[in-house]
Design brief:
Elements lengths: L17 H18 L1 H16 L1 E2 L9 H7 L10 E2 L2 E2 L5 H18 L3 E3 L5 H16 L18 H12 L2 E5 L15 H5 L1 E5 L10 H11 L3 E5 L9 H11 L2 E5 L4 H5 L15 E5 L10 E5 L1 H7 L2 H4 L6 H14 L2 H22 L4 E2 L8 E5 L7 H10 L2 E2 L1 E3 L7 H4 L2 E5 L1 H6 L3 H16 L1 E6 L2 E9 L3 H15 L9
Parallel strand pairs: 1-13, 5-6, 5-7, 7-8, 8-9
Antiparallel strand pairs: 2-3, 4-10, 9-10, 11-12, 12-15, 14-15, 16-17
Helix pairs in contact: 1-2, 3-13, 4-13, 5-11, 8-9, 14-18, 18-19
The chain binds D-serine (DSN).
D-serine (DSN) binds next to loops.
Amino acid sequence: MTADPVTASSAAPGAEYADTASAAYQAALQVIESVEPRIAAATRKELADQRDSLKLIASENYASPAVLLTMGTWLSDKYAEGTIGHRFYAGCQNVDVVESVAAEHARELFGAPYAYAQPHSGIDANLVAFWAILATRVEAPGLAELGAKHVNDLSEADWESLRNKLGNQRLLGMSLDAGGHLTHGFRPNISGKMFHQRSYGTDPETGLLDYDKLAAAAREFKPLILVGGYSAYPRRVNFAKLREIADEVGATLMVDMAHFAGLVAGKVFTGDENPVPFAHVTTTTTHKSLRGPRGGLVLAQPEYSDAVDKGCPMVLGGPLSHVMAAKAVALAEARQPSFQAYAQRVADNAKSLAEGFLKRGARLVTGGTDNHIVLLDVTSFGLTGRQAESALLDAGVVTNRNSIPADPNGAWYTSGIRFGTPALTTRGFGAAEFDRVAELVVDVLNNTQPTQASSGPSKAKYTLADGTAERIHAASAEMLAANPLYPGLTL
Ligand code: DSN
């Protein structure tokens, strides 16, 4: 079996280069220290903090030393706006290699006809996708029709008409409180401003996606773009059904698989649960369950690939060549059999975490999970999400508060805590450890009391019973020591 590149032990991951990586980081930090010691100190401290806490943020992970080291090179110094072989700058021959290798791995890993490795982040990937779909689908008049030879010849009235056409298209995406992402049409985000948007939710009783209601909403609203995918929905989605709905109403299906790309790459989500064959355009980040560097990717069917390829200059500036290189390394890692085993453990561990909560009387949105996310409703503990998040952090459990459907506390204080298993699974945690994590979380929440602020009730104030933080820290320390992060790396 191939070694896993992160949780290096003699039996597994990255052990073969742990000492070399350690020496590289020691040297790098020495150099950084000589220029700005505060940055070297914060970097060292971040490793210590990550080593010493239970990282349960569903969108975070630990990239391998190979991925991290790839980002720290002179590839960062090169401008390379344009596309492979067609750049607006000279001397891009090595960046061409980097981008080609990243795209090749992405195509092979996901079985996609076309891959675009330039987006700097998930929102950039979604903007590229939105504008590629608009450019492909919206019949804006060409220059000749407008009687112009060059864009500079267009009158203000022509531009007004183009803006109205491009800016008033319809987008239907999952609502934020049902688990959708900001970029799926949330009003304060650009996606909620540039599109005429509508949201679909989940069933109020079960918390599950109701495909019939979604189809009815699509028939009524007739979106140009139907967005699938989520950031906080703890269930798998049937993308074949989403494509049927999109086809029926003439919509383009765009799936944002940022959260679960690792489960697709690791062949946990196959058949109807794999969005790539069904979506016209699929976007993702590379740093969540996929375990790469921070960044984005767009995969497209052939009819959208030319437009996606114009992501720069349409939406993006110069690509981050050092990050594209790290994407290539991470994607190469994700093509190894060890990544499939990892992805399966991520899903199995989420089940164990959910069962651990349920058997201790906690309420979960949708009653459980079948992906990498568990969404805990903390109202039964008498807490807001904000209070629960802070109390957990005091005890060394790093999570994020999250809205739950029809959240009584709104999007700032919230009523939920979102948990994810990708990071601690990378460290080597298994089902027994995740059951123990559930026990520790419930212990913290049972020992947290909301308190009143002097000027009235506050949704942020709380007290944690004496001794709780120390007890939880001690219990986690044992599990963390048994599953070290970047073993062999000493700073
Ligand atoms: N911030 C990411 C998450 O936590 O899900 C999404 O952008």
